[in-house]
Specification:
Layout: E1 10-15, H1 17-20, H2 29-44, E2 48-53, H3 56-63, H4 73-96, E3 102-107, H5 109-113, H6 115-130, E4 134-139, H7 153-164, E5 168-173, E6 194-195, H8 217-229, E7 233-238, E8 257-259, H9 268-276, E9 281-285, H10 287-294, E10 305-310, E11 316-321, E12 327-333, H11 337-343, H12 349-354, E13 364-371
Parallel strand pairs: 1-2, 1-5, 2-4, 3-4, 5-7, 6-8, 9-11
Antiparallel strand pairs: 7-8, 9-10, 11-12, 12-13
Length: about 375
Amino acid sequence: MLALEGDVKRVVIKVGSSSLNNPLGGLDDLAIAEVASVIATLKQQGVECILVTSGAVAVGMGQLGMNLRPNDLPGRQALAAVGQGMLIERYARKFEQYGVVGAQILLTRVDLALASHYRNAQNTIEKLLRLGVVPIINENDTVAVEELCFGDNDTLSALVSGLVGANLLVIVTDVDGLYSANPKIDPLAQLIKEVPEVSAVESMAGGAGTLMGTGGMVTKLRAAKIATSFGIGMLLLNFTRIRELLNMAEGHRAEGTYFLPAAHGLASRKRWIAYASFVEGSIQIDDGAAKALVKEGKSLLAIGIVSAKGVWERKEIVRIVDMQGEELARGVSELSSAEVQEVKGLHSEMIFVLFPDFEGDVVVHRDNMTLMGDNCIEI
């Protein structure tokens, strides 16, 4: 059994629908009891646990005697409204058997995209953890419009890991981990136990594996890419091995696929800029400006700007793309889209001539920017 990276004191555990639901419909009480037992024991070992759980829609399906998951958003939202209360009630009942209190937190994309909401969510979870409570997090499916949905709880769990500064993200599912090929088709497929760099294995991903779940290996690799960029390791684990998490106290990790954290993880604000915030538009820059940002760690100056697309106000988030349209970075624009159009290609001193109220001489400051490309090195 391989060792974990560092001392794990705070872990986010995401459990998918495929692990929680009875094939005949409804919730599997034994599965929920197992999750509660493992988390209760981890707490006794001094590990703070945050649970991200799927299952509300599947529970609603079971209650209403439905066999097929609806394709339309209102249909899924209606089922989530039926199932969410039952899901949290079952968790609360099982946790209570171990003397553990759980707290339901339902999040939408807005709650992580707006800076004030992000801080509030962060403060609430921190307070719950100090009180010894286990936050039980799910997407607020019943009210989110399609453009504001996370799309899957794998992505949500990765963002939550960054929000709370976890040491480890564990995604519990119905497969053993990432394989070199599809093990259902290729008998020679090998389990990949350790992945140093997510981009090297992205081509191995497949689609959703079950009728109940919304994710697949694609969403899990997306979550791994987000978490590891934060400096957080991610373990992809079969539900049948969830009890192996209890070996973390001895520094060992469970049998699955472990994605190594980046050596230099993003700071909290840069995590928000990169993955959680709303992006309002894009700024295209020339090759010289691209080199200054990516290789030299510089801020974005007006002289390097070629064009701007979209509409935004000052202090909103924009993408920064190169001449080929590849995204290099995201950052807080100090100027509105209309103002950027006026200053593009000009020397910095001209900004003061055009906008006397402007304080500063850069369009996007390095401190408010996160590099996004695979070949970019965050400085």
